[in-house]
Write a structure and sequence with these properties.
By secondary structure, this protein is an alpha/beta fold. The protein has nine helices and twelve strands. The chain has helices at 15-24, 38-45, 59-66, 102-120, 139-142, 148-160, 191-194, 206-218, 244-250; strands spanning 3-8, 29-35, 52-53, 71-74, 81-84, 93-95, 124-130, 165-171, 173-175, 184-187, 203-205, 225-231. The strands form three sheets. Strands 3-2-1-4-7-8-12-10 form an eight-stranded mixed β-sheet, with helices on both faces. Strands 5-6 form a two-stranded antiparallel ribbon. Strands 9-11 form a two-stranded parallel ribbon. Helix 1 (15-24) packs across helix 8. The longest helix is centred in the middle third of the chain and has 19 residues, at 102-120.
């Protein structure tokens, strides 16, 4: 019998990659994508018959989506929108959509998902967050005065205190570049931001984050780990072979 995993944030730029990879390869999991917008899902996926649509702030919506699932992948995140472009001597200004502020999405929405998962008997939650959460003065927190990394970190701690097995992946800056072509590096508590290894950029392709998420579903060394994730620069067109066991054990 195929096991089921719920993926929230399924129409996001990283979430959609996770869903598509799980749909197109046999990892032993039937993916149940969860999203707010049916039109956006239709635009990205075409066929949305297996989607569940709802609000992550609604306990009923999330509980219904979790029925029959063993694991949960949380890829929901507030998204800042530029409202005023930069001009001479002035930086751009950002804001968030109504009901889309970090406190609502990255804290209350994730808290509701964790609470609902606990009630549903979910065995393992994989959460994708962001590096930078140890610094309250991080520039991302100033976007729209949203304190997005502060709320993300609060949700991560709530998950760690929930008694559910967890894997928390704090990704570096996300790149729209090919995956599987870079060596991945794991770290702790923003050490890469304080001292980048060999001065490399603290970034990673979205597809590599998606691969890490999927590998965490089945890897015994992935549980109860919270770590930062970046990649080395791409050297050539050669695919990289990754020892996932070793990578998770380093986390």
């Amino acid at each position: 019998m195929t096991k089921k995993v719920l993926v929230t944030g399924a129409t996001g730029r990283t979430g959609s990659l996770v869903v598509k990879k799980l749909q197109s390869n046999d990892y032993g999991w039937q993916v149940v994508p969860f999203a707010r917008s049916s039109s956006k899902a239709q635009e990205i996926f075409g066929n949305t018959d297996n989607f569940i649509f709802g609000d992550i702030l609604s306990p009923d919506d999330v509980s219904i989506a979790l029925e029959g699932c063993e694991k949960l992948i949380i890829l929901t995140s507030a998204v800042p929108k530029m409202i005023t472009p930069p001009s001479e001597g002035k930086p751009p200004e950002f804001d968030f959509e109504t009901n889309g502020k970090p406190e609502q999405v990255d804290w209350l929405g994730q808290k509701n998902q964790i609470d609902s998962a606990k009630k549903a008997g979910i065995k393992h939650i994989i959460l994708v967050g962001s590096m930078g959460g140890t610094n309250e003065n991080h520039p991302l927190n100033r976007l729209g005065n949203g304190n997005i990394l502060i709320w993300k970190r609060k949700a991560e701690q709530y998950l760690m205190d929930s008694a559910i097995d967890y894997t928390i992946i704090r990704a570096g800056g996300l790149l729209d570049k090919p995956d599987g072509k870079r060596k991945l590096l794991v770290g702790k508590d923003d050490e890469f931001l304080a001292s980048p290894p060999n001065g490399i950029p603290t970034s990673i392709p979205r597809g590599d984050v998606a691969n890490m998420v999927i590998q965490a579903l089945n890897n015994p060394f992935a549980k109860n780990k919270a770590f930062d994730l970046i990649s080395q620069p791409e050297n050539d067109d050669t695919s990289i072979s990754i020892d996932w066991d070793a990578l998770f054990q380093l986390a």
